[in-house]
Amino acid sequence: MSDQVKMTPLDYSAERPAAKNPVKIMDLSLRDGHQSLFATRGRTEDMIPVAEMMDEVGFWAIETWGGATFDTMHRFLNEDPWERLRTLKRYIKKTPFSMLLRAQNLVGYRNYADDLAYAFVERAAENGMDVFRTFDALNDYRNFETVVEQIKKCGKHFQGCICYTLTEPRLGGEVYNLEYYTDRAKSLEDMGADSVCIKDMAGLLAPYDAYPLIKALKEVVKIPIHLHSHFTSGMSPMTHLKAIEAGVDIIDTCMTPYAYRTSHAAVEPLVMALLGTNRDTGFDIKKLAAINEIFEKEILPKYKHLLDDSKVSIIDINVLLHQTPGGMLSNLVNQLREMDALDKIDEVYKELPKVRKDLGQIPLVTPTSQIVGVQTVNNVLHDTPDERYKMITGQVKDLCYGLYGKTAVPIDAELQKKALKGYPRGEEPITCKPADVLEPELEKAKAEIGDLAVDLDDLILYAQFPVTGKKFLEWKYGKSEPPESVKAITLDDVKKKDEILKKAKEGKLIEAKGDEPAKSGNVRTFNVFVDNEYYNVEVDPTGDAPVLSVAPPAAAVVSSAPAATVPASAAPAAQTAAPSEPSSAPVDGTVLLAPMPGMIIKYERAEGDQVKSGDTIVVLEAMKMENSLTAPCDGTVQGIKFASGDTVSKGAVLCIIS
Ligand code: CO
Fold this sequence. Notes:
single chain
């Protein structure tokens, strides 16, 4: 590209001559940025201070919505996702908004019926959305038909995504080769796409694959090509540059504080790298710096605790080794950790490509990454030498039935047969477009939620998230008190926490707290050993769960202490103190235990019901996948202590069958 660089002294000012073919930039900080780095916990109030400044940069679009924001906002932030759109629109008036739409999955985790899909897109457009970046986890564009019809009807920009995935270390092989991608791009153009996006969610696109890929796409379609390449593996800045040389039209980046790790490359180095070339962005780097200053000083301190700083490296080379999204890998690690099975991670890495192959070599992106990931963990933990796929998730059954669409290669026939045994919709998989077999759902949702959904926006939220959506609507309309955990933290809170941390490091941790209950005469003291440290734990039994108060002893390290562990009598007390864990009463019968931590979606059977071995008793959501837990024997259901929406830990007694 040396012939394209002006060899005159470079002018940094915003008034420098415009490039012939500037690279357009979409900013992702306010959606994918905080989704990737801070578990999507960014609050609207923390976007407002920079909103007007970001509107002045000259971005092609700003991504503000979609992906996991809808779910996270109502579930963890007690924020109405629709309101964010309307609020930001008041500050960002010039720059179009972009959202990530999971096609027929909308912003949830399964295919929804057409009536809900039409309503969602229409309301999103009405609330201020401009660019609908649409993807389907299987790249099955039949799943685009409904939403695209509505996007076009609303006069909005339809950006069609091709999920970039590999089965080999680099582009090529039997399934995901150059022809695959050019063919997909042509289908998108034929469907009326206004632009095509290569969605490289795992950061797998290597620079010297990006060049021929973008070149080939530019040859087969006329519409602009947009590149979305996560940084995770460390390749994306190089990939951006080669894509730009190959003529890519639009690149996705983040503002520096939201950049790198599993997020995206930062915009500022790209602006500087292209300065004075024929692809110069034309951006004023000083404006970007001013925005960064606000993010760094006023906003990010509130989110720093969410940053995964367990590793020094900002690059995940496991992505290069396993061709798997970084987010999926960290989910797997978390899931194993919660189940005390982190030692099985290598088995999981080995099992994962097998499960993916059995399931038709599907791309790994929400929700298929969770589907493959959770099933892989289930196999590693529950399979026996003579039985594979012992515990098949509901979503794998749906996939085998065809409810997600057509897989790149056929699903393993034996697995498909096993998964569909007794499947409620039928044991014969479908070949039509999934939504064709889905009954309309808005009216049914309205009947369930009643007047708690005041308008269509409420109803759409509830229809996609029945359990957490209902909880949110109860908070929203003052029917129940939102828990402390959903409240925003302030810079003041951060300061206080930092002070406590400082004191802790200096060994002055214990402070008298006013709201501590007075100790009764029943207090019992236990020594609890964790690795080489021991804690003096006082247990004061109350009517409900025991109250624990922990005080580190003066000498924390006791490597020479007698080989004592937690006294047997202390163990059950410590366990029952875990959140939301009712103490286990004496059991008479066979217990159904939660095989993993998760949230109760619903009990299919009630107290006193007669059940047969194998009947579904309860549906448990773990890692966003639904698992049907079945009766281990015949008998009567008893001892149900949880309700829909409750969180349970591994080993919780879900019911007793006697
Ligand atoms: Co992304």
